[in-house]
Amino acid sequence: MEKQLLIHDIEVGFRSLDEWSPENERDFEFCVDIEIGLDGTNETMLFYLTVTSLLRLHSIIKGSFLSQRFIVEKYEPKNIYEFIERIVNLNKFDNWEDAIEFLKYYFSHEYFNYNNKYKYIND
Questions:
Q1: Are 70 and 44 in contact, with CB atoms under 8 Å apart?
Q2: Alpha-carbon distances, residue 112 vs 40, 45, 59, 75, 96 (angstroms)
Q3: Span 95-106, pLDDT tens digits
Q4: Of 108, 110, 113, 118, which one has the fewest beta carbons inside 10 Å?
């Protein structure tokens, strides 16, 4: 039976998006911690989403590989919450493995790359 993903927590450095704000609402980059579970289970996993402003993006884009980022014009917590909720509510899953594979398309995963055997550009 397919189950819905559930958001257990969304925060930046142990603070909610509503409590935290960047120094400049138009020039920033930060990581959001997202704890997600599968309905009917006690297990949750931690995922990460990098949120980058357009202004900051212009200063880092040349020669960069960018993935799993949410690009915004200015800091508005409501838009970040809505983006995460939209992804989490897109599909239902039979098991955690399928859910994790789906979520890794949009978010970095806590355990991604722990046992990596490959060499990357920035290594």
A1: no
A2: 24, 11, 27, 27, 15
A3: 988 999 999 999
A4: 118
pTM, two decimal places: 0.85
Looking at per-residue confidence, does 46 or 118 come out higher? 46
Structure tokens at 71: 């690009």
Rounded (10°) CA dihedral 111, 114, 118, 119: 100
Token pair, residue 30, equals 């930060």
Hey, which bits of 54-115 come out as E strands? 69-72, 92-93, 108-109
| Segments making up each domain of the chain, as ranges | 3-109
pLDDT of residue 22: 96
| Bridge partners of residue 47, in order along the sequence | 34, 109
Beta-strand runs (E) in the chain = 3-11, 29-38, 44-53, 69-72, 92-93, 108-109
